[in-house]
């Protein structure tokens, strides 16, 4: 079993998790109670963003990382959505640009001012309308600037070119709600998991499905590309309702390379992969622990390392990009853990214990930096390029000089592949039909009550008229 320690030579065998002290946590945050299976948290080297509980629309906080401690209840929010916010993601190349999606069917791009918010932000720099139902996922392209993917409950994935503010491609191969999206290293392939229990590898520019796995024994929930190894890892549930992980060859999804049961708990397993150290982290929603493994190129492929334990359950986890880590402390990964019951965001650093305080080149290889490798037009024309790498020794504090310029455009019908996305509504689910039926029944009852009241009023007027006619004055 994976939880049994395997004693072998590995520089990451003794990696441990270190929780930040209370004064370096973020306290007093009304974390959203939404049950949607997302992290509700996004972090980069400058800001921490958390989706919050709010009435009359959706909102999220954006807090500068150095502003730790207790957050005031009236702290400014980003609150322009008309529905609950379901996902937020920072632009990997412009640190003050964040994308959000919501139940109001929109995707919005926000520009956070230098130093954070001073007042509530209600105006987005770009509002993107193309989905006919709520939007549950957003993902930035890993190597191309201003290319954004969004997945909605209309079973479509839209590819947005933010230079023009329009959807340029539509992936329409799914038959149910899309649960997860993951890119390979250069962004030429997109892996998705879907509520129809299928794992797909898609060529995003054409929308062509290259590989498809119908997972009968392993119901997939989440998927992640394992860097440039041409492998995928999925988390899901076995036929006995135990939590399970599976490793796949991206070029042959007929059978998983390995399947391994984790435990019998019910919470969703979130996978996180660090391509620089080849380490996989598994964190369960509602759990307090984080398991971590080392991925190898040969069998058994997956080697258990250790487990970080905590009594506080996590609702979601944000992950710091590599260039935001503390290399002087040999930190190789950092989580930001959402603890709903306490209203607390708790940083957890994964540290390789080393005696020397000098830069450790063996655990910090060249890593994807903050410069895009492609423009939107280059990527859309078919060019693929690996990410531009940077050294954490010299340039890990260097910020990108790219500035986001929102296009000026009018709202209109959104036509992609000859289909107006705002008009093309998919078949409704059973729950939606039931809700519509009950709403219509309520409306019918209300109209009947109004008619009955009008009938009573008509009879009263008729009686008054009859009395007037029969009165002695009229005779």
Commentary on this structure:
The protein is mostly beta strands. The protein has two domains: 16-395, YVTN repeat-like/Quinoprotein amine dehydrogenase (Methylamine Dehydrogenase, Chain H, 7 Propeller); 413-464. It is 10% helix and 38% strand. It is built from two helices and 34 strands. The chain has helices spanning 376-380, 430-470; strands at 16-19, 26-27, 41-43, 47-52, 58-64, 69-70, 78-81, 85-90, 97-102, 106-111, 126-129, 135-140, 147-152, 157-161, 166-171, 178-183, 190-194, 198-203, 208-214, 218-225, 231-238, 243-249, 258-263, 269-274, 279-284, 290-295, 302-308, 317-319, 331-339, 344-351, 367-368, 389-390, 415-416, 419-420. A hairpin with a 6-residue loop joins β26 and β27. The radius of gyration is 26 Å and the shape is globular. Residues 444-471 form a coiled coil.
Quick rundown:
The chain has 475 residues and is mostly beta strands. 10% of the residues lie in helices and 38% in strands. The N and C termini lie far apart (104 Å).
Q: Say which CATH homologous superfamily of the largest domain is assigned.
A: YVTN repeat-like/Quinoprotein amine dehydrogenase
CATH topology of the largest domain: Methylamine Dehydrogenase, Chain H
* Major pleated sheet: 4 strands, antiparallel
Rough shape? globular
Low-confidence stretches: none
Second CATH tier, the architecture of the largest domain? 7 Propeller
Family: Belongs to the WD repeat coronin family.
GO molecular function: actin filament binding
Organism: Alca torda
InterPro entries: Coronin (IPR015505), DUF1899 (IPR015048), WD40/YVTN_repeat-like_dom_sf (IPR015943), WD40_repeat_CS (IPR019775), WD40_repeat_dom_sf (IPR036322), WD40_rpt (IPR001680)
């Amino acid at each position: 079993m994976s939880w049994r320690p395997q004693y072998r030579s590995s520089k990451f065998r003794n990696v441990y998790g270190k929780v930040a002290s209370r004064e370096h946590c973020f306290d007093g945050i009304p974390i959203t109670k939404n049950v949607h299976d997302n992290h509700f948290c996004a972090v980069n080297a400058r800001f921490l963003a958390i989706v919050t509980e709010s009435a009359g629309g959706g909102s999220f906080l954006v807090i500068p990382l150095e502003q730790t401690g207790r957050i005031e209840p009236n702290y400014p929010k980003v609150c322009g959505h008309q529905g609950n916010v379901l996902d937020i993601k920072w632009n990997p190349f412009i640190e003050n640009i964040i994308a959000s999606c919501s139940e109001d069917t929109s995707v919005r791009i926000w520009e956070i001012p230098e130093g954070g918010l001073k007042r509530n932000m209600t105006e987005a720099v770009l509002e993107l309308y193309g989905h006919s139902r709520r939007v549950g996922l957003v993902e930035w392209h890993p190597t191309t600037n201003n290319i954004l993917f969004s997945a909605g409950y209309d079973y479509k994935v839209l590819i947005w070119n933010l230079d023009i503010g329009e959807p340029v491609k539509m992936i329409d191969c799914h038959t149910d709600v899309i649960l997860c999206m993951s890119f390979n290293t250069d962004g030429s392939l997109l892996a998705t998991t879907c509520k129809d229990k299928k794992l797909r590898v898609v060529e995003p520019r054409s929308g062509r499905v290259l590989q498809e796995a119908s997972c009968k024994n392993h119901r997939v929930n989440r998927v992640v590309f394992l860097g440039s190894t041409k492998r995928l890892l999925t988390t899901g549930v076995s036929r006995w309702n135990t939590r399970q992980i599976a490793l796949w060859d991206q070029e042959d999804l007929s059978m998983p390379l390995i399947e391994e049961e984790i435990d019998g708990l019910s919470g969703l397993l979130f996978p996180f992969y660090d391509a620089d150290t080849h380490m996989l982290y598994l964190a369960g929603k509602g759990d307090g622990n984080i398991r971590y493994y080392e991925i190898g190129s040969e069998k058994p492929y997956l080697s258990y390392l250790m487990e970080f334990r905590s009594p506080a359950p996590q609702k979601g986890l944000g992950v710091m990009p590599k260039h935001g880590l503390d290399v002087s402390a040999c930190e190789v990964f950092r989580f930001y853990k959402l603890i709903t019951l306490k209203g607390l965001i708790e940083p957890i650093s994964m540290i390789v214990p080393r005696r020397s305080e000098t830069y450790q080149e063996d655990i910090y290889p060249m890593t994807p930096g903050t410069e895009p490798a492609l423009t939107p037009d280059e990527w859309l024309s078919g060019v693929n390029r690996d990410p531009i790498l940077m050294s954490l020794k010299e340039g890990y504090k260097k910020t990108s000089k790219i500035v986001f310029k929102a296009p000026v455009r009018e709202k209109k019908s959104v036509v992609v592949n000859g289909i107006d996305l705002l008009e093309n509504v998919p078949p409704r689910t059973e729950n939606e039909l039931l809700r519509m039926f009950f709403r219509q029944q309520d409306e019918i009852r209300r109209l009947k009550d109004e008619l009955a009241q009008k009938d009573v009023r008509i009879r009263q007027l008729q009686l008054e008229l009859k009395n007037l006619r029969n009165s002695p004055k009229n005779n």
